[in-house]
Amino acid sequence: MAFVALLLPVVAAAQFSVSGKVTDQQTGQPLPGATVSIANLQSTVTNANGSYELSNVKGGNYTVLVSYVGYQALPKSVTVRGSMTVSFALMHSNLMTEDVTVSATRASANSPTAFTNLRKKDLQKNNLGQDLPFLLDQTPSAVVTSNAGAGVGYTGIRIRGSDATRINVTLNGIPLNDAESQGAFFIDLPDLASSVDNIQIQRGVGTSTNGAGAFGASINIQTTTRQDTAYAQLDNSAGSYGTVKNTVSLGTGLLGGHFTVDGRLSRVNSDGYIDRAFSKLKSFFVSGAYYGKSSVVRLNVFSGYEQTYQAWDGVPEDSVRKGNRRYNELGYINRTGTYYPNQTDNYTQNHYQLLYNQQITPKLSFAGALHYTRGEGYYEEYKNDAKLTSYGVTPAIVGGDTLNVTDLVRRLWLKNDFYGVTYNFKYQPQNNLNLTLGGAYNEYRGDHFNNIEWTQQSTNILPDYEYSRNKGVKKDFNLFGRIDYRIGQVLLYGDMQYRHINYSFLGYDRNLNNVQQAVQLNFFNPKVGATYLIDDHNSVYASFAVGNHEPNRDDYVNSSPESRPKSENLKDFEAGYRVRGTNFTAGINGFYMLYKNQLVLTGSLNDVGEAIRTNIKDSYRTGVELDGRVRIIEQLSWAANASFSANRVKNFQQYLYNVDTDNTDLYAQYGKTNIAFSPSVVASSEISYHPIKNSEIAFISKYVSRQYLDNTSTESRSLNPYFVSNVRLGYSFSAFSIKNIGVSLLVNNVFSKKYQSDGATYPDLEGGKVVNYNYWFAQAPINFLGSLSLRF
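== TonB-dependent receptor ==
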């Protein structure tokens, strides 16, 4: 006995492996892609033969848990005294899962495309109040920015240099991008991350999806899924610039073996780093589901309200250079020297989603959704010396004098309805073959109208005088088919999509009369690829995809048939290598994105006098993306990624407004220049150390190289490179009846780097010389957010 007692510490300190195979209990067939985890210490997925291996396991008693879609999770208690084999035979679940809802538009583990998966716990570590784009900042090729400077309010994300109008965003497979402007406004759904289960980010064209084509990337979000245990959770955060976040989440768990109800209520307030850039945000999320043996029905009802004082014009460059990085000139009233207090954006968006999954046969499943979104809101602003004739108002006679201009307050309104249906059938006649047929029909109706709320001088107009109104109607239909077929070690992939768009809008005809117009577009987007599985841990892949993208509302409304731009076309070539091990995963992906007729601003005016985007015949993005994660020791891990790219426009013509002649003229023609807002290097790093159980110290870094504000590669119209670092501290424990108490601290820009992450430029010609009017979005110096989370 004394010998055994002496031996136990040696056994506990030794490192062993746990390996085995996961199979279907009925058929004995291997289950590739099953998740195997051991005591929350490490996890892995089974390979093509259903095999797994967990290495560097210390001796001791553990619970090994295996889970796989459509099967009952199976835990096993094991005592590790040496390397051992533990196999699992899983039973089909009595309840249908809902993963099929989004699987049709997602890349699988061996898909020949570049993607990143984020789990709920990955998001929650940083979810202390900043908007969703900031939670995606550490993913490859991503650059995020905040108008207010501290991550709350209007935020944005670019992936491979493509902004939100070219990133396809779906929520449970339902398009989130605005149908007309094509932007994705996460501010309309504050604290959405608290109701998200997982996210997949695809770079490049990616797989077929619903909504506008992915012209640089796609973000596929899945909200709350089944939680079997009842819970209540309170999340409260507070930090710099008056930032406060309060979230209450509740869930019933599985009731009667079939029903669940989950709910969330949130508010986020912040003064913002920039002067007069406050945000007052509210949201709720309610979800009820029924789980049957072969079907799942889920109803999601959620809403967001935002009021923000606008900082979307940025800070003038000369103000930044003088040291005032927070100056916001928007809303300035010349005559009184004060600022208009209600220079705000106000918007409410309500979402309704009915999701249905059905296992028709063991080999055939169906997923469908009905959805409706109602949005309503306005932007209010003060205008100095506004011309009355520009607002359809007859100049008033005051004291014998004709009043042609006046200060006024106007509201720019938008009321829109978006509704439709999405669906997909998934057929798997055999283990090596997967067929998917899906599509959607969506309709958007947007009412745009503008009112005058107040005038400084009497103009004899009625209250809420409406001076303009127009309607946009967009009908979007798509149909796609997808096949995954495995032959030995080769996985073949094919994806074909047809998309039809009918868009009606108020625009100019050939005689420059403003009348209702309509355009119809038809797109065919094919995708093919292959993955070669070298062995259980290594694979290589290559793919080719075509994407087409329609012009946005402004392109159509502010042009006539003679000057309307063409649709954009992208041919995307991708190739890469992946390695997956127990303590090390890595990948390298090369891409070449060849654009035809990419739309860019030139500075010129079209035949109706509006600033236009024009089609550039040839442009491209090419580069390489690297990402990896390594567990150095049990307590220490390092994740990093880096993107190196060349982003070029060929034969770009720049037009500038000449103040002296009141004309817009061709100023210069360039052979090859950098695409605006497309840094050549983007790199991220996160070093995570766990000194004791349930604790973390993370050091997070981000580098972004120079970004040009236009397509001329002019350094005086660019953003300097920046390197910023954050520190995240976290610790969780349980006490009394509280299942989990989580305390965390996020210190952003810990070295107080002065930098700008976004901007705009408006150069013109004055006295024969180019004068730059640059506006920068200055980001906050060192700032913090602290959080306390209680889960019952």
